[in-house]
Amino acid sequence: MNKPYINKAYMKWWIAMLVFTIALVVPCALMPQILDYYDRPGSWVYNSPFHKDDLLNFYAAFFTFLGTVLLGVGAVFLSQQANDMNKRLIKIEENNYIPTIDINGMAPEELKEFLPKDVFAINLDDSFTDITDSMELSPETDGDVLVLTMTNVSRTDIINIELFKLGLKLKYDDGRSQPITYETLTISLNNKVPYQSTIPFLIGGIRLTDEMLQGNPMLSLTVEFHSTNFLGEVYVQKIKFDLISLWDRQINFPAVENKRNIMVYSY
Question: pLDDT at residue 1 above 50?
């Protein structure tokens, strides 16, 4: 339930309360005058077997009953609203503990701020990404290597993370696209991302020919992570983003564009 809908519901409820209160108070206030006006020979009050005092007591009890019912209905309505609000707050709090990853680019000099054990490295097929103790990538690495970062933007430690699927394709300005195929994925080094931490995310072994890179295309990636939080719950997150790069070197530090979460759900 969104905020405008809540405001409209409250407005309708208060209007109904005002109308009902007026309809309740006005007859109560005027009832003695009404009964006194009709208390004369030939009127229904005069010929009634009930005395005027009895009728006043009856109307007083009746309107007291209606007021009690109205207060009960109001209490139920406000209680329901409070319950809905509590459910939304609980849902927001639970969402904070859904492990969620954000992907960004990394400048070359930033890689030296990390340690080899911090790196989450993915290699396609039988390729291998060599990282020295000084956090340099070896030019002898097979295929192209993308240097990115992954950040834990949730409020929970990710005690285990696995790249379950990786989709790669080149997108050209004329609307063409070309998928980049591979047989296997090899995950090495780090497999956890602590609370609100950032670690290097390397994808190695991408084999791109000069013919494929004519026109400086964008590389589009779709990644699917399976992440486990500190409660042992496993969540699936799928992210799609494009990489902009000059593709003039084997080790690439591209810019991330058109990034969006496709889905996050419990496994």
Answer: no
